[in-house]
Amino acid sequence: MLTALPTRRVALLALLSSLSLGSATPSGTVSPPRPNVLFIVADDLCTHVGAYGDKVVQTPHFDALAARGVRFDRAYAQYPVCNPSRISFLSGLRPDTTRIYGNDVALRTTLPDAVTLPQRLRENGYFTASISKIFHVSQWDPRRPDDKPGTWKLDDARSWDFRVNTKPTELGAKGDRLHLAGGPQPNDVLNYRLMAEGDDDDQDDGQAVRDAITLLEAKRAQPFFLAVGFRRPHAAWIAPKKYFDLYPLASLRLPDPGPREGVPPIAFTNPTPNYGVPEEMLKMLQAYYASTTFMDAQLGRLLAALERTGHAANTIIVMIGDHGWHLGEHGLWHKGTLFEESARAPLVIVAPGARGNGRATTRIVEFVDLFPTLAELCGLPAPAGLAGVSLRPLLENPAAPWSRPAFTQMLRAGNKMGRSVRTERWRYTEWDEGRAGSELYDHAADPGEHINVAAHPRHAVTVGELQRLLRANGGSR
């Protein structure tokens, strides 16, 4: 149904042919082939996927990928909003270093001389390409005439040899549209679901895969860093109708939002624990699940192309969600909190030959660890001053000793910063350096983070230890 595709493919091939894709090694030298990197980011993907234990959502391709590599069961974003999170893991720096806390500031605004992960690889002979949303490029929406494909809001030109943005076809923007008045932000332009007409290639993620396949099929001597950004399951929740049909409303169940007593109000982004009516929330759940399964189908096409083109044996694959997402837990239907569901996201790394492949690790890791990890795996020095550490020891032995915590932060109105530290057993959070409240959750007894025990005298020692971790990381003082 994607009638414009042949023209688009010809144009993409013409553009690729104009790029310098020659060998990165000097003439006459011989060096072992460096690994390629396929870096995949799914927007707003939480751990409601099969490989992380969800029994409803159908994600066979993600699950198969997780079974091939190392699945990180407790991986955490440093800021649970798209732009700050992506800038953090692509630069290897924490938000307090980037000083970017929202979706309207580009990396070079605050750090003009930063070296990003793709930039480092590009400077060392890699061909780097960005397909769709990697940095925070425009989120295309058919009801916003000023949002044009090919606009590069907040992207970073120094990082890429090649970049392309995508949008749905006219057919893919049509269908059964439902405004969800009780969704993430009432009356937000993205707050709707669309059972779209057309097939997968009429959606921006389908087109992103077609463009990525074209790059994989191109002949070049250089190793590549190919970053592919899937916009789904980010709201608006758009997918071809066949994916919605997989999730009849009668088969879905909403989570118990749990109590809010004893939790600082600032921890929540809505004053009451539910939006709208249960039927509407079920439709939101259906739409998120449908968008997730649609994304998974595109992932399957991309991974099949990697195998078909002969790159798989020498390609490191990284698959992440840029942060988590609430699906009714705590009465929330969005991101931007310091609860587990928002801070935690999927992470899978397939490193060819790694001894840990096929296993999972419960060690606490952070997304800032990705830059030093990939630099090491690619045999390159990482820039000085990165916040994370290489995860290679866990790729070789997922049960290796590991004692690092994870830090996540979130700025609220009134310039009140929340800072959270996650250890093997505990999550401790302070809002506005404790002036707006503190939270302590014992994951051994309360994995849903419903009972705040920060004020309980028997946990005073634990609170003190976790406060020191926050302060050592530049947090509350």
Question: How would you explain this protein's 3D organization?
Answer:
The protein is of the alpha/beta class. It folds into two domains: 364 residues, Alkaline Phosphatase, subunit A (3-Layer(aba) Sandwich), CATH 3.40.720.10; 65 residues, Arylsulfatase, C-terminal domain, CATH 3.30.1120. 27% of the residues lie in helices and 19% in strands. It has 13 helices and 15 strands. The chain has an eight-stranded mixed sheet with strand order 4-3-7-1-9-10-2-11, sandwiched between helices. Helix 1 crosses helix 7 and helix 7 runs parallel beside helix 9. The N terminus is likely disordered.
Largest sheet: 8 strands, mixed
CATH superfamily of the largest domain: Alkaline Phosphatase, subunit A
> pLDDT below 50 for ≥5 consecutive residues: which ranges?
1-5, 20-30, 139-147, 183-187
Structural class: alpha/beta
Helix run count: 13
Cα separation of the termini: 58 Å
Shape: globular
Q: State Rg.
A: 22 Å
CATH class of the largest domain: Alpha Beta
Give the tally of structural domains: 2
Kindly report the average pLDDT value: 89
Identify the CATH architecture of the largest domain.
Answer: 3-Layer(aba) Sandwich
* Percent in strands: 15-25%
Determine the CATH topology of the largest domain: Alkaline Phosphatase, subunit A
Order of helices and strands: HEHEHHHHEEEEHEEHHEHEEHHEEEEH
